[in-house]
Design brief:
Low-confidence stretches: none
Structural class: mainly alpha
CATH superfamily of the domain at 8-118: 23S rRNA-intervening sequence
Strand content: under 5%
Shape: elongated
Largest sheet: none
Radius of gyration: 23 Å
Mean pLDDT: 83
Number of helices: 5
Order of helices and strands: HHHHH
Distance between the termini: 28 Å
Length: 166
């Protein structure tokens, strides 16, 4: 099994996104100078945004926060696809550049998002298990179980869960 990533640079999706940024910079060098503050700038910013949001989301503690940054990266990647179409329609390039590459990055982003979601699901299942455990132990040991003590325990666990996943 693969070791968990220690840095955003360990993520394949970031590596491919970074390579994409470098290619976009090379491609846009040939665009007309009149597009320097238009299409060239927008295309580059969108490409950089994909890799930057993956990097920023990597260090976020909560799963929902991580997923939000992955979604922003997916939006920026779609923006790159549009700029590719526009550059081809304006005849700045012969065909739509990097179509297969953006599709691959999109699939990698989806897989990354799903792995984060799976992690959240397992955390919730574990917390649910922890909530049920004291009740089971009390029954095995024939201790009286009060609703208020079990309710307090459940509330405490849910507060910890919401603090770690947001």
């Amino acid at each position: 099994m693969n070791e968990p990533a220690k840095s955003f640079e360990d993520l394949l999706v970031w590596q491919k996104s970074h390579e994409h940024v470098l290619k976009i910079y090379q491609l846009t060098e040939a665009f007309p100078k009149s597009e320097l503050y238009g299409l060239t700038s927008q295309y580059r910013r969108a490409a950089v945004s994909v890799a930057a949001n993956i990097a920023e989301g990597f260090k976020k503690r909560g799963g929902r926060d991580k997923i939000r940054f992955v979604n922003i990266a997916q939006g920026s990647l779609e923006e790159c696809k549009y700029y590719s179409v526009l550059a081809a329609d304006l005849k700045y390039v012969e065909s739509r550049p990097f179509v297969s590459e953006t599709i691959r990055i999109s699939k990698l982003l989806s897989g990354y998002r799903k792995s984060i979601e799976r992690g959240l699901k397992y955390i919730f299942k574990f917390l649910f298990f922890l909530c049920r455990m004291p009740y089971a132990v009390c029954r095995i040991l024939n201790y009286p179980t009060s609703i208020s003590s079990l309710s307090f325990l459940f509330t405490s666990v849910m507060i910890v869960y919401s603090a770690t996943s947001s």
